[in-house]
Amino acid sequence: MNNKTENSLMTVQGNKYRRSAMLYKAGTLLFTVIAIGFALVTLYPYFFSLIASLRKGVDIYTPGWKWSDLSLYAYQRILNTGADEAFMLPRWMLNTFGVAAATTLLTLLISAMGGYALARIDFVTKKLWFAALLGVMMIPGQVTLIPKYIMIAKVFGWTNSYVGLVIPFIFSADYTFMMRQFFLSFPKELEEAAIMDGMSRLGVFVKMVLPLSKAPMLAAGTLIFMGSWSSYLWPKLLINKLDMYMVSQGMTVMMGTKYTASPAISMAAAIVSMLPLILLFIIFQKQFIASIASTGTKGS
Fold this sequence. Notes:
Blueprint: H1 2-54, H2 73-79, H3 89-120, H4 126-137, H5 145-155, H6 162-166, H7 173-184, H8 188-196, H9 201-209, H10 214-230, H11 233-238, H12 247-253, H13 263-294
Helix pairs in contact: 1-13, 2-13, 3-7, 3-10, 4-7, 8-9, 10-13
């Protein structure tokens, strides 16, 4: 009887395990199908834009298309700087890259310095500065837009100037806080050993801390560059010369020109303007994800 009972229990348990395994496989399959469906829905606009930019005809919205309908004409048109003086995509992309690169480098430097000071250096008003930093993070950027414009355009006279596009954004409370959170988890023993060997605080920061902070700085730099590249409102307020436009401004030029009758050219310009951001994220995605996942895990 005991053997029969044990065999029966083992059979029941085996059936439960098989049912659990089948349910797990079914759930995994269902989740995979749903995830693929969401991925297709998310990627469809990009696929549509790519196909639309390659179509020869004016009507890009018809659902049916053939391989013979595709052509690189739109890309040849937008990349030919002498084709149309009113549409200078290569020049606009160069302008945007210069402004975004300068903004990224300066913002990273100042954010790293501020974050390191708040995390590692003890001074009298440290808590006050940290509270002010948190307060600035809670203020929407639109609130300071008008005072910022008055100061940059009226006081300093930096209209139609790339300096005016860079200087107002080199301090970021968000990225200063992000770097502070990282430096809180930075090993103090390394700094103490370097200081005991005679290295100054500046030397520790430049020669030791910054080289070991590549992951969060690359993540922050990716976000800063993407934000600067996509910025529209501030360049629109400050820049009114066509040859100084940013990419975001240049895209609006086509809305009131003859290119409205050639939507494939507009689609091609949009895709080309997105490529630097896509490549940047692909290159630094590991550092970006790792840094965002670890930010905020260290308490204050």
